[in-house]
Write a structure and sequence with these properties.
2% strand; mainly alpha; 2 strands
């Protein structure tokens, strides 16, 4: 019995695998988008109980079962996302992550009473469009088959330089910008979260590959390798830092704004880290470079709109009324001018 195949980026995908990958990618977005709402509800309950806010350094939210439920939900979503890459092409899976923005926006308006104005909705749409453009034109990750190959790439001097830059920038932001702008500018906490998160992705892939090889029996020495434990500890530390600053951001700002900005920054930095780690950018075509630049411009415009107009309360009906009033004023001016000329 023959199974129909489709070819994407030079790789074969049968229809069953493609359908499984598509389902996992959609499920991942649903879980991740929902996890933001569950965590936000837990943080609001935490504050209403008289505890110190997460943004002020309080950690009593760890006693909230709902927060752990949100963490587990996010873990399930990330796990489904990783499995989706095994069944479907990256060109399909990664852009579908933008669905988490829409899921979060819908659920936040339903359960958190966080209303996005008309400008914010347009900005969210531009965030998704810009991210999809970047992902479609970004270099695709090459296949890494062994833990040894990946550890060699992780210890490469270029990736080590990237890690050093991320750590140094994070320390500078922590010391200089967090005390001054952490509670007023959404980009401060989310940059910390996204930058460290880009390292988390690389470390998690290495840990998962090492465990997989040990289970299937291809290389039982991975668990006894000191690099495995060093990467595992680094992964745990990065996840803790990432979750800490994500909680601070959710505690201060609306989920409908945090989700798209976090998705965009996290996606962009993961693409940059993957490009440095796997060196795909060396073979990029001019059209792909131009597409990435255009995607970055769209994303930057969307982030500016989300921040600059977040307190600007306007609806589509208000815009219609403003347009009608301006037309009426213009009509009156034209009539008055015509009368004055006739006189």
């Amino acid at each position: 019995m023959k199974t129909s195949k489709l070819v994407i980026d030079g790789q074969d995908y049968d229809n069953l695998s493609f359908a499984i990958g598509l389902g996992l990618a959609v499920a991942s977005s649903l879980f991740i988008g929902s996890s933001f709402i569950i965590k936000k509800l837990a943080l609001k309950k935490h504050v209403s109980s008289g505890n110190v806010r997460a943004s002020a350094g309080g950690y009593a939210y760890l006693k909230q079962w709902m927060w752990w439920m949100g963490l587990v939900t996010m873990g399930v979503g990330e796990g489904a996302n990783l499995l989706a890459y095994a069944f479907a092409p990256a060109a399909l899976v990664t852009p579908l992550g933008a669905l988490s923005v829409l899921v979060s926006a819908v659920l936040s308006s339903k359960f958190l009473d966080e209303k996005l104005n008309f400008v914010g909705k347009i900005a969210c749409f531009l965030c998704i469009i810009g991210s999809v453009i970047i992902v479609l034109h970004s270099p695709k990750s090459e296949e890494i088959k062994t833990f040894q190959e990946l550890t060699q790439k992780l210890t490469d001097y270029i990736f080590a330089t990237y890690v050093s830059i991320i750590v140094l920038m994070s320390l500078i932001i922590k010391v200089l910008f967090v005390p001054r702008f952490g509670n007023s500018n959404i980009l401060v906490y989310l940059f910390m979260c996204s930058a460290i998160g880009s390292l988390t992705v690389a470390f998690c892939k290495a840990v998962a590959l090492g465990i997989k090889e040990s289970i299937v029996g291809k290389n039982l020495n991975n668990i006894s390798n000191y690099l495995f434990w060093l990467i595992l500890v680094s992964c745990i530390v990065c996840i803790m830092v990432q979750m800490n600053y994500l909680n601070k951001s959710l505690d201060i700002f609306n989920t409908s704004i945090v989700t798209p900005v976090y998705y965009v920054m996290f996606t962009v930095l993961v693409i940059i880290a993957s490009g440095i780690l796997f060196r795909e950018w060396e073979h990029m075509k001019f059209g792909d470079i131009l597409g990435c630049v255009c995607g970055f411009l769209v994303v930057m415009t969307a982030i500016f709109m989300l921040n600059a107009f977040r307190d600007f309360q306007v609806t589509f009906r208000d815009l219609n009324m403003i347009t009608r009033n301006s037309r009426n004023v213009n009509d009156e001016l034209i009539v008055n001018l015509s009368r004055s000329r006739s006189r």
